[in-house]
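Example 9 (inverse folding). The structure is encoded as follows.
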């Protein structure tokens, strides 16, 4: 049995010289990845194993610097806009928030609203609506990153950046194989 994932392929950039009619075009073509689902029973790796390694690499870089109050943003596709994410990008942010806290860093939940919305569906305090979010949450640093799709996995480039000076305080890279990501997609 195979599972098909539809993920963006490498960025293709075509630029014509300005003397020849100056045109530029950026295409992102979908890349179909076949993942053998029989591998799932043969491995015990989870996304959290890779995010813990990534958090450890970041932590090693940050030990020589004072870093506090870190918010974690969704990881985005490395394309021309840097505005596209997916379940992997959101799950990386979620996992890394907890991983950094376990390493002793003060993490900030920037999606917190200043109220609890209660209805028949549950009690809610998180939102992606910027108008509903709490103000003045005191973020000093942001952990963010990009996703680069390769033939057999995704390369995650992560960095912790100071919000006041845009200085990169730590950076790290982690490769995550598609068979681990397919577990994430198949489990919702």
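The amino acid assigned to each position is listed next.
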């Amino acid at each position: 049995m195979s599972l098909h994932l539809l993920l963006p392929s490498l960025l293709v950039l075509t630029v014509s010289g300005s003397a020849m009619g100056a045109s530029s075009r950026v295409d992102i073509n979908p890349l179909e990845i076949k993942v053998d689902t029989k591998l799932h029973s043969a491995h015990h790796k989870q996304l959290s194993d890779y995010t813990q390694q990534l958090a450890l690499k970041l932590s090693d870089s940050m030990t020589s610097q004072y870093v506090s109050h870190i918010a974690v943003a969704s990881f985005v596709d490395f394309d021309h806009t840097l505005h596209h994410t997916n379940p992997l990008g959101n799950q990386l942010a979620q996992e890394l928030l907890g991983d950094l806290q376990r390493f002793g860093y003060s993490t900030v939940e920037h999606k917190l609203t200043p109220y609890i919305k209660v209805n028949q569906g549950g009690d809610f305090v998180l939102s992606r609506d910027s108008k509903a979010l709490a103000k003045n949450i005191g973020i000093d640093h942001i952990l963010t990153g990009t996703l680069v799709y390769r033939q057999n996995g995704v390369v995650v480039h992560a960095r912790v950046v100071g919000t006041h000076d845009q200085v990169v305080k730590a950076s790290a890279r982690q490769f995550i194989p598609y068979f681990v990501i397919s577990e994430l997609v198949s489990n919702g």
